[in-house]
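Exercise 7.
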Amino acid sequence: MEIPANTDIEIQRRERCDVMRRLALLVLFFIGTSLSAQEMPKAKPPQLPFQVVDNFFKIPKGMFMAEAVGVAINSKGHIFILNRGNYPLLEFDQEGSFLTSYGEGSPVFHVPHSIRFDSEDNLWLVGAADNMVVKFDRTLRVIQALGRRSSDLGWVYMTHGIERAIPPPADFYQPTDTAIGPDGNTYVTDGYGNSRVAKFTKEGNLIKYWGDRGTRPGQFSTPHNIIIDKNSNVYVADRANNRVQVFDTDGNFKKEWDLDGPPWSLCMPPGSQVMFIGSVGRVYKMDLNGNILGEFGKLGRLPGYFDSIHAMACPDEKTLYLAEEFSFCFDKVILP
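Solution. The predicted structure, written as tokens, is:
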């Protein structure tokens, strides 16, 4: 005896088949949508016009630059450039005329890495090879030294044997940069070896540190630059992870900005809501929500081109000073 086609069993079977077909169509739809999104190229940021000022810095004859690693501006508008040559620190006026030099022959300037001015015009020098952060007053007299020099660090520095670093907590292992917060505390990216941010009181006492080597939020792979805005947001250039991470001053993670290149240097013009990020051969201009507003630059080691932009200073949104490490070059760049 045949079972009628409209029995409950047959109806349930058909309903199950309909559900399975709908699920299969949904899966295919989402797979297709995902593949389409992956295949679509990301829109390139707008290219910003720029002008490199020819021979802006009037470096005296006989003063040969080496790796260009730092640039900073004091309250007078004088521009200080830092390099790894025999004349490590040079001062220029606003027109690029040479004023004086500092640090010749001093062990304090052994393999320098960065310079910054704070709101009181103190100059902060970070020495990567010496594991030191040194604070100078307006007359360039040493008034504070954080960390401790190591006499046997040369071999370690040359081999970059950094993965097994276990220094005491208050000591650095190849630090990279420093920033002074609105609270007066000092923040140091302790950079190649420890992959962390260290926080010190104004008196130089270690409060805390956060971060270790890795790719998760709050971890770092070569934290290379650090700046703090007026709202106490801490921005860290997480260079080898191709991102900028944002924290509060207690090290609590807030957000990250993913980039398509390594961020070497950070600069925020005073009173501005934008940030410039120096990378390899180009500079990003971003808002403080992490949106890229534009970029400029061409990769090369001739005048008018940029290589790895190790440091930047930006007195306003139209003027940037770049330190390009491997071309031994310092540039002034004008944006329209």
